[in-house]
């Protein structure tokens, strides 16, 4: 994968110039007694790509982003962002990134325009320059009509767009964006709009690392996805790679009895006890499906019906995040 040329005047020199983010063996513990929150994270994100860090609550997504964005230090491991070491070259990293998300700081009592102008002034722009910059950003993020209203009256989607605009005030075109759950709580339309903004940023050559709990979002937006679970990367690759890990297809079996359901639950990646349905990974070929049906139900009495469909990222997520951590029952109602 080759990043766009000419967009990174600085910071592009590294052992591997195509990586905007590289992390090796990041660990982090909190509290006494120490609880390990990150347990050796490796990440490589190509310049000019969208990368999704996908994981359930408490997986360590925000902690990872905070380390990469220099807000927290890892206990061990190293990371480079835009070619700079996140500890030794912290201020160079900060100049190269934009960070928005769960910890954005916008003054609710001021208007969107006032917020952006104030931030622009803080970065050293003149009064006129700050006004111009705020105007451009309001326009770009479709906030011109709401520019003169206090931020507390904004909808969730408007607020999220303002956060993104705020992240762009300081460094007009930073190389690397960290978006921590940019669409959590947004309605489908606002989410689509935000996806558009992300695609636009990527099209201009920016690198975007976003965290999300939404599989569909990672699937639609990200070239590569890392599935984070309990402080470890459980899987990494393209959406197709991840789906192929659960066989590429899923055979859903509607069973005739709860005995059959319980007997087979352990090998399923999808569980629906109410309907006595289990989903089992398969490559989808007739030969394998036939063999599976024969093996699972040699007497022909335990399976009432079956259906075959392409695996979704949900299947991957449930499969990889349930292994060794929960019972089939615990993941059945997700
Ligand atoms: N400053 C802190 N002190 C103590 N524990 C912390 C601290 N920050 C995070 N943790 C713990 O680390 C774990 C991972 O938290 P983190 O915020 O990285 O998860 P996350 O994947 O972002 O979750 P979410 O989807 O809920 O945002 C959690 O168990 C959390 O309680
Ligand atoms: Mg978080």
From TrEMBL:
<dbReference type="InterPro" id="IPR003439">
    <property type="entry name" value="ABC_transporter-like_ATP-bd"/>
</dbReference>
<dbReference type="InterPro" id="IPR017871">
    <property type="entry name" value="ABC_transporter-like_CS"/>
</dbReference>
<dbReference type="InterPro" id="IPR003593">
    <property type="entry name" value="AAA+_ATPase"/>
</dbReference>
<comment type="similarity">
    <text>Belongs to the ABC transporter superfamily. Drug exporter-1 (DrugE1) (TC 3.A.1.105) family.</text>
</comment>
<dbReference type="Pfam" id="PF00005">
    <property type="entry name" value="ABC_tran"/>
</dbReference>
<feature type="domain" description="ABC transporter">
    <location>
        <begin position="21"/>
        <end position="255"/>
    </location>
</feature>
<keyword id="KW-1278">Translocase</keyword>
<dbReference type="InterPro" id="IPR027417">
    <property type="entry name" value="P-loop_NTPase"/>
</dbReference>
<keyword id="KW-1003">Cell membrane</keyword>
<keyword id="KW-0472">Membrane</keyword>
<keyword id="KW-0067">ATP-binding</keyword>
<dbReference type="InterPro" id="IPR050763">
    <property type="entry name" value="ABC_transporter_ATP-binding"/>
</dbReference>
<dbReference type="InterPro" id="IPR005894">
    <property type="entry name" value="DrrA"/>
</dbReference>
<dbReference type="GO" id="GO:0005524">
    <property type="term" value="F:ATP binding"/>
</dbReference>
<keyword id="KW-0813">Transport</keyword>
<keyword id="KW-0547">Nucleotide-binding</keyword>
<protein>
    <submittedName>
        <fullName>ATP-binding cassette domain-containing protein</fullName>
    </submittedName>
</protein>
<keyword id="KW-0046">Antibiotic resistance</keyword>
């Amino acid at each position: 994968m080759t990043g766009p040329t000419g967009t990174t005047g600085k910071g592009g020199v590294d052992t591997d110039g195509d990586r905007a983010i590289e992390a090796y063996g990041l660990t982090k513990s909190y509290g006494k007694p120490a609880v390990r929150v990150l347990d050796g994270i490796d990440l490589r994100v190509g310049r000019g790509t969208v990368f999704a860090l996908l994981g359930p609550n408490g997986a360590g997504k925000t902690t990872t982003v905070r380390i990469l964005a220099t807000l927290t230090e890892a206990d061990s491991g190293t990371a480079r962002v835009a070619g700079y070491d996140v500890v030794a070259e912290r201020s160079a990293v900060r100049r190269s990134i934009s960070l928005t998300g769960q910890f954005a700081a916008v003054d609710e009592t001021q208007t969107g325009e006032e917020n952006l102008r104030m931030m622009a002034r803080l970065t050293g722009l003149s009064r006129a320059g700050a006004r111009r910059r705020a105007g451009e950003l309001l326009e770009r993020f479709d906030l011109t009509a709401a520019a003169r209203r206090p931020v507390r009256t904004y909808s969730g989607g408007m607020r999220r767009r303002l956060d993104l605009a705020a992240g762009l005030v300081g460094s007009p075109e930073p190389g690397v964006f960290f978006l921590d759950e940019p669409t959590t709580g947004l309605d489908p339309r606002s989410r689509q709009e935000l996806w558009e903004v992300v695609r636009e940023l990527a099209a201009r050559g920016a690198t975007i690392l976003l965290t999300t709990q939404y599989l569909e979002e990672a699937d639609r937006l990200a070239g590569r996805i890392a599935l984070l679970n309990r402080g470890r990367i459980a899987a990494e690759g393209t959406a197709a790679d991840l789906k192929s890990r659960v066989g590429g297809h899923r055979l859903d079996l509607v069973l005739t009895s709860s005995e059959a359901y319980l007997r087979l639950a352990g090998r399923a990646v999808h569980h629906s006890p109410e309907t006595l349905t289990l989903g089992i990974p398969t490559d989808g070929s007739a030969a394998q499906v036939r063999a599976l049906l024969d093996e699972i139900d040699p007497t022909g009495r335990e399976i009432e019906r079956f259906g075959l469909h392409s695996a979704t990222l949900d299947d991957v997520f449930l499969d990889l995040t349930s292994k060794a951590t929960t019972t089939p029952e615990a993941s059945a109602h997700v």
